[in-house]
Amino acid sequence: MEPDEKRSLIERYINAYNTFDIEGMLALVHPDVAFKNVVSGQVNATAVGQEELSRLAEESRGLFNSRYQTILRFESADDQANVDVEFVGVLAMDLPNGLKKGQTLKLTGRSEFTFKEGTIYRITDITD
Asked: What's the whole-number mean pLDDT along residues 28-51?
């Protein structure tokens, strides 16, 4: 895939994520997609395959009243692309870590994408 095709696919995926459009997200990923979320070096969520990713997305949808990721930087090489992102979300419930319903969570991180057969094949979200 060309870099502009990768960026377009990532932007469509993030737009679907931002609007809680799980079907739209799944339409862009490979059937054998693998997702991993890493926070401060610890893996705290994984999903393999579209069904598991769908379940994880449904669970996380309930955490936020709204959420928005913005791409800050994009780089592409071979079958991969990395984006630096800013995330802003308004919590829909109190969390065990002390964050409260209605509180705005803002952070920056990186997402690493691998592509296969014109789809997103691997996604790793990383925050410190």
From this structure: 96
Q: Mean pLDDT over residues 79-83, rounded?
A: 97
Mean of the per-residue pLDDT values of the chain: 96
Tokens 């379940």, residue located: 55
Rounded Cα distance between 94 and 38, Å, is 21
Tally of CB atoms within 10 A around 13: 23
Spatial CA neighbour of 67 closest among 89, 84, 87: 89
Q: Using CA atoms, how far apart are residues 74 and 39, in angstroms rounded to an integer? A: 21
> Buried b vs exposed e over 43-68: b needs ≥16 C-beta within 10 Å?
eeeebeebeebbebbeebeeebeebb
- pTM tops 0.90: yes
In angstroms, rounded to a whole number, what is the distance separating the alpha carbons of residues 57 and 120? 16
**What span, in angstroms and rounded, lies between the C-alpha atoms of 35 and 50?**
10
Query: Cβ-count burial of 80 within 10 angstroms (0-12 exposed, 13-18 middle, 19+ buried)?
Result: middle
